Amino acid sequence: MKIIMLGAPGAGKGTQAKQIASKYSIPHISTGDIFRANIKNGTELGKKAKSYMDQGLLVPDELTCDLVVDRISQDDAAAGYVLDGFPRTIPQAEALTEALNKRGEKIDYAINVEVPDENIVNRMSGRRACLGCGATYHVVFNAPKKEGICDSCGGELVLRDDDKPETVQKRLNVYHEQTQPLIEYYGKADALAEVDGTQDIDVVFSDIIKILGE
Ligand code: ADP
Ligand code: ADP
Ligand code: ZN
């Protein structure tokens, strides 16, 4: 099963993608996590990506598409995957479609997690991210068992620099301009499914299971 998560920054894509990956035993592939791991390890890619991410801008397609196409070609992705944060532009979607076409494959579901902009800024200021394993929490809606510590790996939880309100507003603008057109793109490809992302986390997940099947 090949799945894409669509939705604004903070809509809950990562939260749901992790649960999908676990239930259906497929890898969760997050481009944001891949870039953050590269930044942490001080790679060339990390250095290039950081300047864009800090400004709330997208990392250029040239640095992003090949990376994802390589990742989904690995053995653990043979039976499917859930892509979180990719594609984010029409050229990225076209690159993905083309790479899949070559192998006679296609995306089965593009799940759009819908959350209005008004809800997003609040969510982001309460988001805490684990730089160790990519898990995300929320100080109110999804608190870790121990404040500041990741339940899964014991890593330290941080407020991401790009989750500060000024940057979030910019990321929302970028989302509307560059990423939202993908809803129509995957609608035309007959892969689009929509869920109401303002509901509780477990309700959103049960709506997703209804779409993907038990
Ligand atoms: P969120 O899930 O909150 O939107 P991500 O972790 O997916 O955040 O992404 C963080 C940042 O990483 C983005 O703002 C962008 O700068 C960069 N990024 C992640 N995925 C992509 C992508 N597919 N194309 C370009 N930039 C990306
Ligand atoms: P995305 O990957 O789309 O950027 P996340 O999954 O990281 O979004 O979620 C953003 C923030 O909102 C996190 O702090 C997360 O714990 C919280 N969150 C996710 N889903 C919900 C929900 N349905 N209701 C309330 N808060 C949520
Ligand atoms: Zn962790």
Question: What's the quick description here?
Answer:
The protein has 214 residues and is of the alpha/beta class. The chain has helices spanning 13-24, 31-40, 44-54, 61-72, 90-102, 117-126, 165-179, 181-188, 201-212, and strands at residues 2-6, 28-30, 81-84, 109-114, 127-130, 136-138, 157-158, 192-196.
Overview of the structural elements:
It contains 9 helices and 8 strands. The protein is of the alpha/beta class. A hairpin with a 5-residue loop joins strand 5 and strand 6 (136-138). The longest helix has 15 residues, at 165-179. The chain is globular, with a radius of gyration of 16 Å. It starts with a strand and ends with a helix. The mean pLDDT is 96. Zinc ion binds at residues 130, 132-133, 135, 150, 152-153, 155.
The count of strands amounts to 8
- Gross morphology is globular
**Distinct compounds present:** adenosine-5'-diphosphate, zinc ion
Strand order of the largest sheet: 2-3-1-4-8
Largest pleated sheet:
5 strands, parallel
Features:
about 210 residues, 9 helices, three-stranded antiparallel β-sheet, five-stranded parallel β-sheet, binds zinc ion
